[in-house]
Task: structure prediction
Amino acid sequence: MKKQDQVFGHILAMITIIIWGTTYVSTKVLLAYFSPVEILFIRFVIAFILLYLMYPKPIKMEAKHQLLFVGAGISGITLYYLLENIALTMTSASNVGIIITIAPFFTSILATIFLKTEKPKIQFYIGFVAAMIGVILISLPGDQSISLNPVGDFLALLAALAWAVYSICIRKISDLGFPTIQMTRHIFMYGLLFMMPFLFFMDFHIQLEDFQSVPVIANLLFLSVGASAICFVTWNQAVRILGALKSSVYIYVVPVVTLVSSVIILDEKLTPVLLIGAGLTLLGLWLSESNRFIKK
Result:
Protein backbone atom coordinates (compact mmCIF):
# COMPACT_ATOMS: atom_id res chain seq x y z
CA MET A 1 0.00 0.00 0.00
CA LYS A 2 1.27 3.47 -0.88
CA LYS A 3 2.57 5.68 1.91
CA GLN A 4 0.06 8.43 1.06
CA ASP A 5 -2.78 5.95 1.48
CA GLN A 6 -1.46 5.04 4.94
CA VAL A 7 -1.26 8.73 5.87
CA PHE A 8 -4.82 9.24 4.62
CA GLY A 9 -5.98 6.34 6.78
CA HIS A 10 -4.34 7.83 9.88
CA ILE A 11 -5.93 11.23 9.14
CA LEU A 12 -9.38 9.65 8.80
CA ALA A 13 -8.96 7.76 12.07
CA MET A 14 -7.79 10.86 13.94
CA ILE A 15 -10.59 13.09 12.58
CA THR A 16 -13.14 10.45 13.55
CA ILE A 17 -11.78 10.12 17.07
CA ILE A 18 -11.68 13.91 17.56
CA ILE A 19 -15.38 14.14 16.69
CA TRP A 20 -16.31 11.09 18.77
CA GLY A 21 -14.36 12.52 21.70
CA THR A 22 -16.54 15.65 21.76
CA THR A 23 -19.93 13.94 21.44
CA TYR A 24 -20.35 13.89 25.22
CA VAL A 25 -21.28 17.61 25.09
CA SER A 26 -24.18 17.00 22.69
CA THR A 27 -25.28 13.91 24.57
CA LYS A 28 -25.30 15.83 27.84
CA VAL A 29 -27.59 18.48 26.31
CA LEU A 30 -29.95 15.90 24.82
CA LEU A 31 -30.27 13.90 28.04
CA ALA A 32 -32.44 16.72 29.36
CA TYR A 33 -35.00 15.83 26.68
CA PHE A 34 -34.49 12.15 25.81
CA SER A 35 -33.45 8.89 27.44
CA PRO A 36 -30.15 7.29 26.32
CA VAL A 37 -31.90 4.69 24.16
CA GLU A 38 -34.04 7.39 22.51
CA ILE A 39 -30.94 9.40 21.61
CA LEU A 40 -29.29 6.28 20.26
CA PHE A 41 -32.24 5.24 18.11
CA ILE A 42 -32.94 8.73 16.74
CA ARG A 43 -29.31 9.41 15.76
CA PHE A 44 -28.93 6.17 13.83
CA VAL A 45 -32.32 6.46 12.09
CA ILE A 46 -31.34 9.91 10.80
CA ALA A 47 -27.86 8.63 9.89
CA PHE A 48 -29.32 5.65 8.00
CA ILE A 49 -31.70 7.87 6.03
CA LEU A 50 -28.86 10.24 5.12
CA LEU A 51 -26.58 7.42 3.94
CA TYR A 52 -29.44 5.89 1.96
CA LEU A 53 -30.06 9.20 0.18
CA MET A 54 -26.34 9.48 -0.56
CA TYR A 55 -26.09 5.92 -1.91
CA PRO A 56 -29.51 4.29 -2.56
CA LYS A 57 -28.14 1.46 -4.72
CA PRO A 58 -29.18 -1.96 -3.28
CA ILE A 59 -26.39 -4.16 -2.01
CA LYS A 60 -26.03 -7.69 -3.39
CA MET A 61 -23.94 -10.43 -1.81
CA GLU A 62 -23.80 -14.09 -0.85
CA ALA A 63 -25.61 -15.25 2.28
CA LYS A 64 -22.34 -16.03 4.09
CA HIS A 65 -21.19 -12.44 3.56
CA GLN A 66 -24.51 -11.14 4.85
CA LEU A 67 -23.64 -12.68 8.21
CA LEU A 68 -20.65 -10.34 8.49
CA PHE A 69 -22.97 -7.35 8.15
CA VAL A 70 -25.31 -8.82 10.74
CA GLY A 71 -22.38 -9.30 13.10
CA ALA A 72 -21.14 -5.74 12.53
CA GLY A 73 -24.61 -4.24 13.07
CA ILE A 74 -25.25 -6.19 16.27
CA SER A 75 -21.77 -5.68 17.76
CA GLY A 76 -20.86 -2.12 16.73
CA ILE A 77 -24.27 -0.45 16.78
CA THR A 78 -26.76 -2.38 18.93
CA LEU A 79 -24.64 -4.04 21.61
CA TYR A 80 -21.79 -1.53 21.95
CA TYR A 81 -24.00 1.51 22.53
CA LEU A 82 -26.68 -0.23 24.58
CA LEU A 83 -24.13 -1.92 26.84
CA GLU A 84 -22.22 1.34 27.28
CA ASN A 85 -25.38 3.32 28.08
CA ILE A 86 -26.66 0.73 30.57
CA ALA A 87 -23.21 0.50 32.15
CA LEU A 88 -23.23 4.27 32.73
CA THR A 89 -26.39 3.88 34.82
CA MET A 90 -24.74 1.26 37.07
CA THR A 91 -21.14 2.42 37.43
CA SER A 92 -19.15 5.65 37.19
CA ALA A 93 -18.31 7.36 33.91
CA SER A 94 -14.64 7.07 34.89
CA ASN A 95 -14.88 3.29 35.18
CA VAL A 96 -16.66 3.03 31.82
CA GLY A 97 -14.12 5.31 30.14
CA ILE A 98 -11.21 3.26 31.42
CA ILE A 99 -12.73 -0.13 30.63
CA ILE A 100 -13.85 0.83 27.10
CA THR A 101 -10.24 1.72 26.30
CA ILE A 102 -9.39 -1.99 26.66
CA ALA A 103 -11.05 -2.53 23.25
CA PRO A 104 -7.72 -2.47 21.31
CA PHE A 105 -6.43 -5.31 23.52
CA PHE A 106 -9.48 -7.42 22.68
CA THR A 107 -9.05 -6.48 19.03
CA SER A 108 -5.45 -7.71 19.10
CA ILE A 109 -6.58 -11.11 20.43
CA LEU A 110 -9.38 -11.47 17.87
CA ALA A 111 -7.13 -10.23 15.05
CA THR A 112 -4.56 -12.89 15.90
CA ILE A 113 -7.28 -15.55 15.68
CA PHE A 114 -9.37 -14.34 12.74
CA LEU A 115 -7.00 -12.04 10.81
CA LYS A 116 -3.87 -14.07 10.29
CA THR A 117 -2.11 -11.14 8.61
CA GLU A 118 -2.35 -8.80 11.63
CA LYS A 119 -0.13 -9.91 14.51
CA PRO A 120 0.99 -7.50 17.24
CA LYS A 121 4.50 -7.58 18.65
CA ILE A 122 5.48 -6.98 22.26
CA GLN A 123 5.72 -3.21 21.74
CA PHE A 124 1.99 -3.14 20.98
CA TYR A 125 1.27 -4.38 24.49
CA ILE A 126 3.83 -2.01 26.02
CA GLY A 127 1.94 0.78 24.28
CA PHE A 128 -1.33 -0.60 25.63
CA VAL A 129 -0.03 -0.51 29.22
CA ALA A 130 1.30 3.05 28.81
CA ALA A 131 -2.00 4.21 27.30
CA MET A 132 -4.06 2.54 30.05
CA ILE A 133 -2.02 4.27 32.77
CA GLY A 134 -2.54 7.55 30.96
CA VAL A 135 -6.27 6.96 30.61
CA ILE A 136 -6.56 6.20 34.34
CA LEU A 137 -4.72 9.44 35.21
CA ILE A 138 -7.04 11.40 32.91
CA SER A 139 -10.23 9.69 34.02
CA LEU A 140 -9.54 9.85 37.76
CA PRO A 141 -8.23 13.36 38.49
CA GLY A 142 -7.90 14.76 41.98
CA ASP A 143 -8.72 12.47 44.88
CA GLN A 144 -11.06 10.14 43.02
CA SER A 145 -10.41 6.42 43.09
CA ILE A 146 -11.60 3.38 41.22
CA SER A 147 -14.63 1.80 42.88
CA LEU A 148 -15.76 -1.61 41.70
CA ASN A 149 -19.35 -1.95 40.49
CA PRO A 150 -19.35 -5.55 39.23
CA VAL A 151 -22.45 -5.52 37.02
CA GLY A 152 -21.84 -2.11 35.45
CA ASP A 153 -18.11 -2.73 34.99
CA PHE A 154 -18.79 -6.12 33.41
CA LEU A 155 -21.25 -4.53 30.95
CA ALA A 156 -18.60 -1.95 30.03
CA LEU A 157 -16.15 -4.80 29.46
CA LEU A 158 -18.68 -6.49 27.18
CA ALA A 159 -19.07 -3.18 25.30
CA ALA A 160 -15.30 -3.10 24.70
CA LEU A 161 -15.45 -6.69 23.45
CA ALA A 162 -18.39 -5.80 21.18
CA TRP A 163 -16.35 -2.99 19.59
CA ALA A 164 -13.46 -5.41 19.02
CA VAL A 165 -15.83 -7.81 17.25
CA TYR A 166 -17.10 -4.89 15.16
CA SER A 167 -13.52 -4.02 14.15
CA ILE A 168 -12.87 -7.58 12.97
CA CYS A 169 -16.16 -7.70 11.03
CA ILE A 170 -15.38 -4.38 9.34
CA ARG A 171 -11.92 -5.59 8.34
CA LYS A 172 -13.41 -8.70 6.73
CA ILE A 173 -16.23 -6.73 5.08
CA SER A 174 -13.74 -4.24 3.61
CA ASP A 175 -12.12 -7.11 1.70
CA LEU A 176 -15.42 -7.69 -0.16
CA GLY A 177 -14.97 -4.44 -2.09
CA PHE A 178 -18.27 -2.68 -1.35
CA PRO A 179 -18.29 1.15 -1.36
CA THR A 180 -17.79 2.43 2.19
CA ILE A 181 -21.04 4.44 2.30
CA GLN A 182 -23.05 1.48 1.03
CA MET A 183 -21.55 -0.98 3.51
CA THR A 184 -21.96 1.46 6.43
CA ARG A 185 -25.61 2.03 5.51
CA HIS A 186 -26.21 -1.74 5.46
CA ILE A 187 -24.56 -2.13 8.87
CA PHE A 188 -26.76 0.65 10.30
CA MET A 189 -29.83 -1.16 8.96
CA TYR A 190 -29.01 -4.29 10.93
CA GLY A 191 -28.00 -2.25 13.99
CA LEU A 192 -31.41 -0.55 14.03
CA LEU A 193 -33.23 -3.79 13.31
CA PHE A 194 -31.72 -5.57 16.31
CA MET A 195 -32.12 -2.47 18.47
CA MET A 196 -35.91 -2.37 18.04
CA PRO A 197 -36.79 -5.22 20.45
CA PHE A 198 -35.01 -3.33 23.25
CA LEU A 199 -37.23 -0.29 22.72
CA PHE A 200 -40.29 -2.13 24.07
CA PHE A 201 -38.90 -2.63 27.58
CA MET A 202 -36.58 0.37 27.84
CA ASP A 203 -37.42 4.03 28.42
CA PHE A 204 -38.63 4.87 24.90
CA HIS A 205 -41.50 7.33 24.41
CA ILE A 206 -40.58 10.08 21.94
CA GLN A 207 -42.85 13.14 21.81
CA LEU A 208 -42.93 15.62 18.91
CA GLU A 209 -42.72 18.65 21.22
CA ASP A 210 -39.24 17.52 22.25
CA PHE A 211 -38.00 18.42 18.75
CA GLN A 212 -39.12 22.06 18.88
CA SER A 213 -35.96 23.32 20.55
CA VAL A 214 -33.10 24.64 18.41
CA PRO A 215 -30.40 23.16 20.71
CA VAL A 216 -32.09 19.76 20.47
CA ILE A 217 -32.19 19.84 16.67
CA ALA A 218 -28.62 21.13 16.42
CA ASN A 219 -27.21 18.47 18.76
CA LEU A 220 -29.22 15.67 17.15
CA LEU A 221 -27.87 16.69 13.76
CA PHE A 222 -24.33 16.74 15.12
CA LEU A 223 -24.69 13.24 16.59
CA SER A 224 -26.56 11.75 13.64
CA VAL A 225 -24.88 13.45 10.67
CA GLY A 226 -21.42 14.12 12.08
CA ALA A 227 -20.77 11.46 14.72
CA SER A 228 -22.77 8.67 13.08
CA ALA A 229 -23.21 8.99 9.30
CA ILE A 230 -19.92 10.73 8.51
CA CYS A 231 -17.75 9.31 11.30
CA PHE A 232 -18.72 5.68 10.80
CA VAL A 233 -17.95 6.06 7.09
CA THR A 234 -14.55 7.63 7.81
CA TRP A 235 -13.81 5.06 10.53
CA ASN A 236 -14.76 2.13 8.32
CA GLN A 237 -12.56 3.54 5.57
CA ALA A 238 -9.70 3.90 8.06
CA VAL A 239 -10.11 0.25 9.06
CA ARG A 240 -10.10 -0.70 5.38
CA ILE A 241 -6.77 1.13 4.89
CA LEU A 242 -4.96 0.54 8.19
CA GLY A 243 -6.45 -2.74 9.37
CA ALA A 244 -8.46 -3.54 12.49
CA LEU A 245 -5.47 -3.43 14.84
CA LYS A 246 -3.79 -0.19 13.83
CA SER A 247 -7.08 1.72 13.64
CA SER A 248 -8.38 0.39 16.98
CA VAL A 249 -5.56 1.96 19.01
CA TYR A 250 -6.84 5.43 18.12
CA ILE A 251 -9.47 4.74 20.78
CA TYR A 252 -6.72 5.66 23.27
CA VAL A 253 -7.04 9.27 22.09
CA VAL A 254 -10.72 9.65 23.04
CA PRO A 255 -10.00 10.56 26.71
CA VAL A 256 -7.36 13.08 25.56
CA VAL A 257 -9.84 14.74 23.19
CA THR A 258 -12.45 14.77 25.94
CA LEU A 259 -9.91 16.36 28.30
CA VAL A 260 -8.98 19.11 25.82
CA SER A 261 -12.61 19.87 24.95
CA SER A 262 -13.47 20.01 28.67
CA VAL A 263 -10.75 22.60 29.22
CA ILE A 264 -11.81 24.67 26.19
CA ILE A 265 -15.60 24.36 26.35
CA LEU A 266 -16.32 23.80 30.04
CA ASP A 267 -13.33 25.78 31.38
CA GLU A 268 -12.16 22.86 33.50
CA LYS A 269 -8.76 23.06 35.20
CA LEU A 270 -5.75 21.43 33.54
CA THR A 271 -3.48 19.84 36.18
CA PRO A 272 0.02 18.30 35.92
CA VAL A 273 -1.48 14.84 36.50
CA LEU A 274 -3.80 15.30 33.53
CA LEU A 275 -0.91 16.46 31.36
CA ILE A 276 1.15 13.40 32.34
CA GLY A 277 -1.85 11.18 31.62
CA ALA A 278 -2.34 12.73 28.18
CA GLY A 279 1.37 12.32 27.45
CA LEU A 280 1.38 8.64 28.42
CA THR A 281 -1.74 8.00 26.36
CA LEU A 282 -0.20 9.56 23.26
CA LEU A 283 3.04 7.64 23.90
CA GLY A 284 1.03 4.43 24.06
CA LEU A 285 -0.64 5.34 20.77
CA TRP A 286 2.74 5.96 19.13
CA LEU A 287 4.18 2.66 20.35
CA SER A 288 1.13 0.69 19.26
CA GLU A 289 0.89 2.42 15.89
CA SER A 290 4.51 2.15 14.75
CA ASN A 291 4.89 0.10 11.57
CA ARG A 292 7.87 -1.61 13.14
CA PHE A 293 5.67 -3.09 15.86
CA ILE A 294 2.74 -4.57 13.93
CA LYS A 295 3.10 -7.14 11.19
CA LYS A 296 0.63 -6.96 8.35
Strands lie at 119-120, 294-295. Confidence is low (pLDDT under 50) at residues 292-296. The first strand starts at residue 119 and ends at 120.
